[in-house]
Structure of Glycerate kinase:
Amino acid sequence: MAAALQILPCLPRALLRLLPRRGLVTQVTSTMALPEQARRLFESTVGAVLPGPMLHRVLALDPTGKLLKVRDRSFQLRNNLYMVGFGKAVLGMAAAAEELLSQHLVQGVISVPKGIRAAVERAGKQEMLLKPHSRVQVFEGAENNLPDRDALRAALAIRQLAEGLTADDLLLVLISGGGSALLPAPIPPVTLEEKQMLTKLLAARGATIQELNTIRKAMSQLKGGGLAQAAYPAQVVSLILSDVVGDPVEVIASGPTVASAHNVQDCLHILNRYGLRAALPRSVKTVLARADSDPHGPHTCGHVLNVIIGSNLLALAEAQRQAEALGFRAVVLSAAMQGDVKSVAQFYGLLARVVGACLTPLGAGASAEEHIELHRLAAELHVPDLQLEKALEAVTGAQGPVCLMVGGEPTVQLQGSGRGGRNQELALRVGVELGQQPLGPVEALFLSGATDGQDGPTEAAGAWVTSELASQAAAEGLDVTTFLDQNDSHTFFCRLRGGEHLLYTGLTGTNVMDAHLLLLRLQ
Ligand SMILES: Nc1ncnc2c1ncn2[C@@H]1O[C@H](COP(=O)(O)OP(=O)(O)OP(=O)(O)O)[C@@H](O)[C@H]1O
Ligand SMILES: O=C(O)[C@H](O)CO
């Protein structure tokens, strides 16, 4: 397991208190190396969306202690509260909910990633752990984010709890990213292995999370509203920490408390698109054929309240505040970056060039062609909330360092059999792009990290690079292209300068997609 969790959201604030004047702060931070600043900013991004505080923002008990308030709705509590949960951030969410509601809690079951309790304990994050004699049963499973037998056992226990509820009961459902793999309950005759294989193939061929989860829903007893249906007639309140661009409740963890609006045709289109239709196991065909006559219809979720409690945007907003405290001119460019890592890397490479040119005192700025090309790349990525113009305006004339912040989740089309994750691969590709840009006296650093602390099936959260990457690699005899062809970014970074470019946080206990930071300053 990676080094202990080190979330230090308060550190720059403490620094600020000691040094209230901006000039002084800038002086101190400018002596701090860019990698150190980038690591701190990533830590504050994660620290802003730790599950406990997120939960407390939406849940409260009224003074009598008998009414649960969820935003503007109220629910009667009379020894009738049950809790289930699944996802990478659910342990901390459950601990916070237990802390607040333990006197009403009858029983709970949660499904969380393998090793999360040990990681949280090692990091000294006691507030993310359940009480010693908790009424909440914990299952750990889904190693490397793939559904397994342990997760299946958890899903069955969750289904059993839900099915036993009555109209007097209230079911609190805690949901976060990673929930799909932690709640596998394939519809027979589909087996766990078949579902695992299909998910893996779709992900490896670059399917989006929307596509992946459409298929998962069609194969599952609990996804796509199935859990809500199992809990009926109890009232259901789902608290959701979003790890999907745009916070679509029907996609996050495959929407177990949201009626699925997809039909078999949608599934067949997706399977066709990724060349998987012909080779489908017979069991999958059987379930798809049945699905249209037995959907978890929209009428089944009227007893449910779905509430988004936190997202990537919130994390970036905090990181922006921290970056400003460190003396950067900080801009959030988007919380919805998507697309293939190759195109995303080209965009960031050119963005560094264009923004870098704004920082050079007597520089002529970037050329009109470069601006046009940057906008073309941006348009190709179809990022719904991209603030490119606003960002360029904001950094024009910046005297000091600049920090551009982006959230989202690009995709990788796996071709090789190497080890890596989309953050490490993106960082490696951006490193190559930075090396090809004429940045002159501008120092550039790019960091990409998974807020859950685990990038793909590796123990690193991500990596950071500078424009020196290509020359550093060459000096150590590492051929970047070969590593990229093999999707072997993790091995590359392990070998580069003894692994110093890798980002290790350990499992963070939260999950709001990835964060990309581009830091630029004059040398
Ligand atoms: N060798 C590799 N190189 C690059 N990317 C990889 C590699 N192996 C797996 N991936 C990518 O990692 C992604 C899975 O990563 P991870 O397990 O962190 O999922 P996630 O999307 O963060 O999960 P969740 O959203 O469920 O929390 C897949 O999209 C896959 O394409
Ligand atoms: O679990 C999942 O389906 C993904 O993390 C998206 O929420």
Residues 177-180, 209, 213, 243-244, 252-254 surround (2R)-2,3-dihydroxypropanoic acid (ligand 2) (CB under 6 Å). Residues 250 and 258 are 5 Å apart (CA to CA). DSSP finds 21 helices and 15 strands in the chain. The longest helix spans residues 341-359.
